[in-house]
Predict the structure of DNA processing protein DprA.
Amino acid sequence: MEILARRWLQVQQCLALPPAHFRRLVLANPSPHLILDLPLLELAKLGISASQRRVLAQELSLSGHGWVDEALASADADVLCFHDDDYPALLKEIHDAPPLLYYRGRTELLRGVLFSVVGSRRPSRAGRADAQAFATALGNAGFTTVSGMALGVDTAAHIGALISPSSTIAVLGTGVDQCYPKSNRVLYDQIASEGLLLSEFPLGSPPLRHQFPRRNRIISGMSLGVLVVEAAIHSGSLITARQALEQNREVFAIPGSIHNPASRGCNALIKQGAKLVDTLSDIIEEFSGWANTDTATVGDPEKLVTEEVESRVYDALGYEPISFDEVVNFCGLSVADALAELGDLELGGWVEQYRGGWQRSR
């Protein structure tokens, strides 16, 4: 089926149509050769002139795909079109489904049960741990985790999902041959090998700001539901959640402290009707009969919520940073004892140093 997609890629480059026109052309014609049978008046409505039709006829008459084959081989990539069997079924339902998807990795993952995990690029330690644990548990339940390979929650979700048998799909805001952010190079290579890298943007596309909100509709569109782990009020993750609602997908959110800026977006989503999540069961019960949900276990995510710690220093902290001097004064400890207790709590993942002060990380 990649041969059909490569033909469409030839058409795209040959005609250089606006994206909306090219999408209409692909969705209405299962094969590029059918374009040559369209009346000139209909072609004109799509912005295709008689001379362009002649050039296209000559291009489609070639036995191979010319530069397309070379470019894809050079990037160790390939391309799917809307009519391919591996094209994500749910993604076809959205109104602006991408006509072409470039990929590296295992396209068989697209035929699985897909679920998105997204969140802040600067999460708390607990947020990272929750994202990783939920992604692993979802993977063990038969869901393939979809995210955007951004720093923070996305990265943690991919790492957690790679541990599971269901693996992960990263939808990129660049070409699939571009690793962004560069610090995720090891993760990028691992997903290319064990999971799937996916993008609607042409090979070589750099990380342009406007491309990331656009790719979010693919993350939500190809998924049964979206879990938001941590998100500020103006987070890009809330864009994904809003798009999910518009696409009639289920939206889930992990609640957090009203004093934690990274939780305000999740709390707002819950007030607007997103389902509150504190264990995997909250997600599983919405999808009874999908994947392995009948036998799924809650695993690590539940443990993260129910653990408790006894510590005067921990009790003194909230979700806003306070200075070390304030910790010492509030607890009545010596500097040495306060430092020792903070060190133990930090090693345990309970607190973290942030913006010059200390705060709870869960």
Observations:
- Residues 312-360 form a domain with the Arc Repressor Mutant, subunit A fold (CATH 1.10.10.10).
